[in-house]
Amino acid sequence: MNPTTRLKAEDAVVMEIEIAATPEEVFRALTDKEELRAWWVEGGSNNWELEIRVGGKWSAQGHDKSCGNWQLWGEILAFDPPRVLEYTWHEELELERNCAPTVVRYELEAIGNLTRLTLTHSGFGSDKEALERYRGGWPGVLELLKAWHERPKHAG
Fold it and tell me: Binning pLDDT at 50, 70 and 90, where does residue 44 land?
């Protein structure tokens, strides 16, 4: 299943995807710096640091073809494993115009043998250009997360 877009508000991106993994596995992929490093960027590089607690700081740096060199950072607003992760989102991008600080929220729900992940990226206000950029960018990120969990796993 490809990510589907649901629009709840004019200034938010809301997407859902179902992943063949448990909520605990998906949540770990969103909060473990080694797993984030492994799946977040296709054809690029990245590095993550996270203080996994409400009020904790997080940051990421990397490079990819669409943004060039980039830096992301923020503060964790909600942390309820394996159901909810929410943080502020600040960015500094080399090849794109930066947007004002926003908020990213992941909600995970077990659906049989799958996890339904709902991503909400909100707070764009009148910045329609940034909103559309993220509407176009988040599906690729969610597909990378899905592929990470659904990749063939080989012994030894």
Answer: confident
Give the span between the Cα atoms of 61 and 152, in whole angstroms: 28
Residue with token string 């996270």:
50
Structural domains in the chain, sorted by start:
4-150 (3.30.530.20)
**CB atoms closer than 10 angstroms to residue 1:** 11
Burial class (CB in 10 A: 0-12, 13-18, 19+), 152: exposed
- The DSSP letter of residue 96 is S
What pTM, to 2 d.p., does this model score?
A: 0.90
| Predicted pLDDT of residue 81 | 98
Structural contact between residues 115 and 21, judged by C-beta atoms closer than 8 angstroms = yes
Structure-token pair, residue 45: 């590089």
Please give the C-alpha separations between residue 142 and each of 4, 37, 72, 154, in angstroms, as whole numbers: 10, 14, 17, 23
> What per-residue string of b and e applies to 19-40 under the rule 16 or more CB within 10 Å gives b?
bebbbebbbbbbbeeebbeebb
For 22, list phi and psi in degrees, rounded to 5: -80, 160
